[in-house]
Design a protein that fits this description.
Elements: E1 27-28, E2 60-67, E3 80-87, H1 89-93, E4 98-105, E5 121-122, E6 128-130, H2 135-139, E7 145-150, H3 166-179, E8 185-186, E9 194-195, E10 200-209, H4 211-220, E11 227-233, H5 239-243, E12 244-245, E13 248-249, H6 255-262, H7 265-270, H8 272-281, H9 290-293, E14 307-313, H10 322-333, E15 338-343, H11 355-371, E16 383-388, E17 391-395, E18 404-415, E19 418-422, E20 431-435, H12 442-447, E21 456-460, E22 468-472, E23 475-482, E24 488-502, E25 511-519, E26 530-536, E27 538-552, E28 571-576, E29 580-584, E30 589-595, E31 610-614, E32 619-625, E33 659-661
Parallel strand pairs: 1-25, 4-7, 4-10, 10-11, 11-14, 14-15, 15-16, 19-21
Antiparallel strand pairs: 2-3, 2-8, 3-7, 5-6, 8-9, 12-13, 16-17, 17-33, 18-19, 18-32, 20-31, 21-30, 22-29, 22-32, 23-28, 23-31, 23-32, 24-27, 24-30, 25-26
C-alpha cells in the first residue's frame, strides 16, 4: 500500500503474525489435492475450470535475477531485479508450459503485503519460503506459476526506486519479456549462470493493490506482448494526481519521501542522484513537469493489449477514484476489454471485503484470459457496485446505459451560505462568500450543511421523488473572486439523508479484522494459505459524501502552471470530481458544497482567502441517471429526519439496469 502522510484517515494497524501454529486448527475451504490428475489443471477452450491437482508442497521454488536493460544507479552496468517464483513441478516434468500470475512490488521487504502485512521469507540458502498473499497457495495447485518481483532499488534488487518512472515500469516489463524469451535472467544478483523461463508459455497476468497495481497499469500502457490481463486494485493512473489535485498539494511531501521510505539500505547509498531528480522534478508549487508526463499512463491507454479488471474503493482517500475514472474512460475509448468492482470501502483489497466472491471471480478471470477457458466471464455484467455493506448490484456496462451529463446550478436562498441546487441559473449578480478555514473538513461542512457558516456555501435539491444515480466522473466549474494572492477550492457532493454505510473513516477503512482464519489453497510449514477473516464495519449516518474535487485557483489557466492571484479579480476554474457510483434514494436530497481547504485531504494555501462566488457562473456537470426536480424555494435547514427510509436493495428503489445481489 502507499503510505499516507498527514491525512485524517488512520492507517489500519498491520501486525506481522506467525500462522504456522494455527494451521492444524484452521478450517480448510478447499478439497485436498488427492492424486495428480495429469491434465486437469491445464485448462483450455471447452474446459470448465482449472482444478487444484498439483502438489503445492513439492512445487519448485526458485529465484532469478532479470536484467532490466536500465542502468538506474549509473554504475555502468544494467540493473537486475530479483524475481521469486513458485510453480508446480508436474507440468514441466510432462513437457507442458504454464501461465504466470505476477505481482511486482516495492514492499516485499520494507512494509509487507495484505491485511497482515506479509513479507517474503527465505531459508538459510536464500531459497524463497513464504510468498505473501494467497495467489501462490490457491493458483499454483491449479497449474499457474506465481512470480513476485522486487522493484528496482528495493529488497534484493539492483538499481533505484523512481516512483512510477522508467525504472519501476521496466522492472516488471523486463520480467514479462523474460517469461516470453525476450530478456536475460541469471541465477545470481551479478554474474552467475543464464536462466531461461522454459517452463512458461508467456501468458502473464499482473495483479496488485496500490503501488503494485499502479505498476501493472504502467506496464500495460507500454503495450508489452505476452501481458494478457491486469488486475489493478486501488491503483494510480497518473502520479501527479497522487500528489496534487490541479495544483493543490494532497500531501506535505513528494515522491522523494516515498522513495526514501521504500528503497533498500544498499540503495540509499547509491541513489542520491535519483532522489535529487525526484525533488527537482516535482516542485511543491504543483506545476506540471516532464517528471509527471513520464509517470502519466492515461495517454498510453491506446497501447494496452491486456484486458483490465479494475477494483477500487469509492471512499479511497489514499488513491482517490480520480485515478480510476480517468484510466477507465481512456481504456473505454481504446476499446479495451474490461471489468470493474466498486466498493464502499477505502483503500482495501477485495480479498478483505468480499473474499469468497472475489476468489471465485478472479479464478474464472485468470482461467479465461491466461488458460483460454471459455467460461463466459467476458460476457457477464461488466460492473459490480456495493450499495450498502455487503449488498451489491450489477450492470451490463459501466457507466450504465442511460447515464447523461447533466448540468446543475446553485442559487442563493433566504439564509447566507444555504442555497438551492437545481437546473435553473441564479439571477445575475447573485453571490455567496466563503472564508477558508484550514481546520475544517468535508465532514464539518456536511454536518452543518443547513446552517449559515462562513467556511462553506451549501446548495441542496428538494427531497427527491425518485432515486437519482450518479455514475462516473463529473466536474464543478467555479467562478470566484479571491481577497488574497492564493486560494484553494474544494467541491463536495453529499447525499443528505440517513443510511448505513461502511465506516471508511475508521481504522479498517470499512472492514474489521477477526482472529479466526479461513484457508484459500494449500499450505506448507513456511507458507500458510490461512488468513484472518474480515467483516464489514457498518456505520449509521445522516449524510454521505459521495464525491470530491480539489484545486488551486491559481491553476485557472488550465496549462499545468500555477500563478499568483490578483485580489479582487474574478477567476473561473473547473474542478475534476472523483469517479463514483451512488444512488441518492427517493426522499433524500443531493447537495453541493463549495469551500476552501478540505482539512486532512489537501494542504492549505499560504494565505487565508475570502472567496466571493459568482453563482450564475458556477455549475456542476454530473453523470446522472434520473431527473433532478428543480427547487423553487430555499431548502429547509438541517438533514432529513431519521424516519425517511433508505432504499431497500431487494425492492424497486434501484435504478433501471442494475441487478442486486446480497
Amino acid at each position: 500500500m502507499l503510505p499516507r502522510r498527514n491525512t485524517r484517515i488512520h492507517w489500519t494497524t498491520l501486525i506481522l503474525l506467525s500462522v504456522t501454529a494455527l494451521l492444524a486448527a484452521a478450517v480448510t475451504l478447499l478439497p485436498p489435492l488427492g492424486a495428480q490428475a495429469a491434465h486437469a489443471a491445464t485448462a483450455g477452450p471447452g474446459a470448465g475450470e482449472s482444478r487444484p491437482v498439483y502438489s503445492y508442497r513439492h512445487a519448485i521454488r526458485e529465484s532469478v535475477w532479470v536484467d532490466t536493460r536500465v542502468d538506474g544507479d549509473a554504475d555502468d552496468r544494467t540493473d537486475r531485479v530479483a524475481v521469486d517464483i513458485v510453480r508446480p513441478r508436474e507440468p514441466a516434468q510432462a513437457g507442458r508450459r504454464i501461465p504466470v500470475i505476477m505481482d511486482a512490488s516495492p514492499y516485499y521487504a520494507c512494509c509487507g503485503r495484505g491485511n497482515e502485512s506479509q513479507t517474503k521469507t527465505y531459508d538459510a540458502a536464500g531459497k524463497p519460503v513464504r510468498f505473501p498473499l494467497y495467489y501462490d497457495n490457491y493458483f499454483v495447485p491449479r497449474g499457474y506459476a506465481t512470480v513476485l518481483v522486487d522493484l528496482a532499488g528495493t529488497s534484493r534488487s539492483d538499481g533505484c526506486v523512481d516512483i512510477g518512472g522508467r525504472s519501476d515500469i521496466q522492472s516488471a516489463r523486463s520480467v514479462v519479456d523474460w517469461l516470453n524469451g525476450r530478456a536475460r535472467g541469471y541465477d545470481a544478483p551479478s554474474g552467475g549462470r543464464a536462466v531461461t523461463a522454459s517452463w512458461s508459455n508467456g501468458a502473464t497476468g499482473m495483479i496488485g493493490k496500490s503501488y503494485d497495481g499502479t505498476v501493472a497499469n504502467g506496464v500495460a500502457a507500454t503495450g508489452v506482448k505476452g501481458l494478457k490481463t491486469i488486475v489493478p486494485i486501488g491503483a494510480i493512473s497518473s502520479w501527479y494526481d497522487y500528489y496534487f489535485a490541479q495544483g493543490a498539494p494532497l500531501f506535505d511531501s513528494g515522491p522523494d519521501a516515498l522513495a526514501d521510505g521504500i528503497e533498500s539500505d544498499a540503495a540509499h547509498g547509491r541513489c542520491a542522484e535519483v532522489q535529487r531528480r525526484l525533488v527537482e522534478g516535482a516542485p511543491r508549487t504543483g506545476d506540471w513537469t516532464g517528471l509527471w508526463s513520464a509517470r502519466d499512463y492515461v495517454p498510453d491507454a491506446r497501447k494496452v493489449r491486456a484486458s483490465v479488471f479494475a477494483v477500487h474503493g469509492m471512499q479511497d482517500l489514499n488513491v482517490r477514484t480520480k485515478h480510476l475514472g480517468q484510466w477507465w474512460n481512456a481504456l473505454s475509448r481504446a476499446g479495451v476489454e474490461r471489468k470493474i468492482w466498486l466498493s464502499q470501502t477505502g483503500h482495501v483489497d477485495p480479498f478483505d471485503f468480499r473474499r469468497g466472491d472475489w476468489v471465485r471471480t478472479l479464478h474464472r478471470w485468470f482461467d479465461h484470459y491466461l488458460m483460454g477457458v471459455d467460461n463466459g466471464i467476458e460476457r457477464e455484467p461488466m460492473a459490480d457496485v456495493e450499495r450498502a455493506p455487503d449488498q451489491w448490484s450489477t450492470d451490463r456496462v459501466w457507466p450504465p446505459s442511460g447515464t447523461r451529463q447533466t448540468t446543475l446550478r446553485p442559487r442563493g436562498g433566504d439564509t447566507p451560505g444555504v442555497g438551492v441546487l437545481g437546473t435553473r441559473r441564479a439571477a445575475p449578480g447573485t453571490t455567496e462568500t466563503v472564508t477558508d478555514n484550514p481546520a475544517l473538513s468535508e465532514a464539518d461542512w456536511s454536518a452543518r450543511l443547513g446552517q449559515s457558516t462562513p467556511d462553506k456555501a451549501g446548495f441542496t435539491t428538494g427531497p427527491l421523488s425518485r432515486p437519482l444515480r450518479l455514475s462516473g466522473s463529473g466536474t464543478v466549474t467555479v467562478t470566484a473572486t479571491p481577497s488574497t494572492t492564493s486560494a484553494h477550492l474544494s467541491a463536495v457532493l453529499v447525499d443528505v439523508g440517513p443510511a448505513t454505510i461502511r465506516d471508511y473513516t475508521g481504522d479498517g477503512e470499512g472492514i474489521v479484522t477477526h482472529d479466526r482464519r479461513t484457508c484459500w489453497g494449500s499450505s506448507t510449514e513456511g507458507d500458510s494459505a490461512c488468513f484472518k477473516e474480515t467483516a464489514a464495519d457498518p456505520a449509521g449516518v445522516d449524510h454521505t459524501v459521495i464525491s470530491r474535487g480539489w484545486a488551486d485557483l491559481g491553476n485557472y489557466a488550465g496549462d499545468g502552471k500555477g500563478r499568483p492571484l490578483t485580489p479582487g479579480k474574478r477567476y473561473t476554474l473547473t474542478l475534476d470530481l472523483a469517479a463514483t457510483d451512488h444512488i441518492v434514494p427517493a426522499g433524500h436530497r443531493l447537495a453541493l458544497i463549495i469551500a476552501g481547504t478540505d482539512a486532512g485531504l489537501i494542504e492549505p494555501p499560504d494565505t487565508t482567502p475570502r472567496l466571493t462566488l459568482d453563482l450564475p457562473r458556477t455549475s456542476a456537470r454530473l453523470p446522472l441517471v434520473g431527473v433532478v426536480p428543480d427547487t423553487t424555494g430555499a431548502p429547509s435547514a438541517g438533514p432529513l429526519k431519521k424516519g425517511v427510509a433508505a432504499p431497500d436493495p431487494g425492492r424497486g428503489d434501484r435504478m433501471p439496469g442494475a441487478r442486486t445481489t446480497g
